[in-house]
Amino acid sequence: MPRRTSHLMGPSDVVILVVGMTGSGKSQFVSKLTGEDAGVGHNLTSCTISLDLYSCVENGQRIFVADTPGFNDTQLSDVEILKDIAFFLGQLHLRNVRLGGILYLQPITDNRVSGSALKTFNILRALCGPQALKCAALVTTKWDALRSSKDDLAAYDRENELKYTSNLWGSMRQHGSQSYRWLGSEASARSIVREVIQTSFRNTSSPVLQIQRELVDEKRPLDSTSAGCEIMKHYGDRCQKLKQELDNLRSELLSASDLTREELKEGEAEVNRLMDELNRAETSQQRLRVSQQDLFDQKKSEYEKLYQGIWEEVEQEKKMISDIDNRLSAFEQRLSRLEPKMDSAKGLATAEFPAAGTWARVRLFLKRNVLPLLGVLAGVGVVAAGAAVINPPLIMAGAQLFALSFSGVQWQHGQGADGRDLIAGVEGVMKACPPTPISAGFRICT
After folding, report:
1. Coiled-coil stretches, from where to where (predicted)?
2. Is pLDDT at 365 greater than 80 in this prediction?
3. What is d(CA 373, CA 187) in angstroms, rounded to the nearest whole number?
């Protein structure tokens, strides 16, 4: 990858990791917290990276949010998800980026804790380790979906079961982990994040997770880490169960003498299905046996490609904005020479240009906002040692830029009167803080 300048990660910046099963409300939580449509985050990732990245500002502190797929994801294997999470956390530790906490989201409406959720609890314990469990927080969701006092009582019972059962969240609470209720609002999401960050940094400046120590400090292969062992155990149990099912089915097929041709065909199809599943499980075990160096080389390469791609998109968005602004200026000059009776046509025509330019600005802002963290993950970014190395005008520009997420402006399409609130909000920031050259305020990194 060529030499490039990189946005700086500030010494006060923190990262929050959001985990949970598919359908637990992660996307809704992230959307409320950051003011961004969760769909935008997906556009900032690639087919080889499963984490979605967002950013926001809370009480003047920049927070990067990483949304992870659930370990019940139908498109990704547990191994690939663990690889992404392990590298992400390891690279944060290697680059001295502060982890503000890990949020595990669990719907309070679920009548029972699924096997996938239990597996995730165990993996999360292994990721953190006993000394850093205070960094993890249980966040129950969908309280706003309860419709009756009977629903409320059932939810309270489920909450207590989650909090105090040892093989669920009970053992984690004994090591300082807290639990919270997300009530579905932006204020509730912000409050949870504030408290989690405060808890994580209480009595220590930067807690180190077990996976970070094992991967970075001890340089263990992924399958030898505590979290890797949990995944290996899961696949080992699954392989053993599948082999037993295969043996039983084959014995039944061999001993049965009165099976019809159709029944034999169905039996053979089931054998093939079990064989395929067993092969996938054994392959996953093999893929987990990766050295720390190979894992970091692979993932850094993927993030480098993503970083470079988004950087190029930022440049394209800047050119698009400049082109729209130039065309709008020329159009307004031509219209100003026409008769006053054309005023209504002028207003109608110029309304279309700001809208197009505004959405380009929004895309540019969102992409720029995650570049500091992407640079760190790609191995081309650094964390600023202090404010002296940061360009003061850029700090002010960044503060205004990130504050827009919490200024009350609705980012989603369809919010506000024909999008005019959004246009006014974004254009107001653009006037106070015009786009700066990509190189301004950045440090050259190799």
Report:
1. 232-334
2. no
3. 25
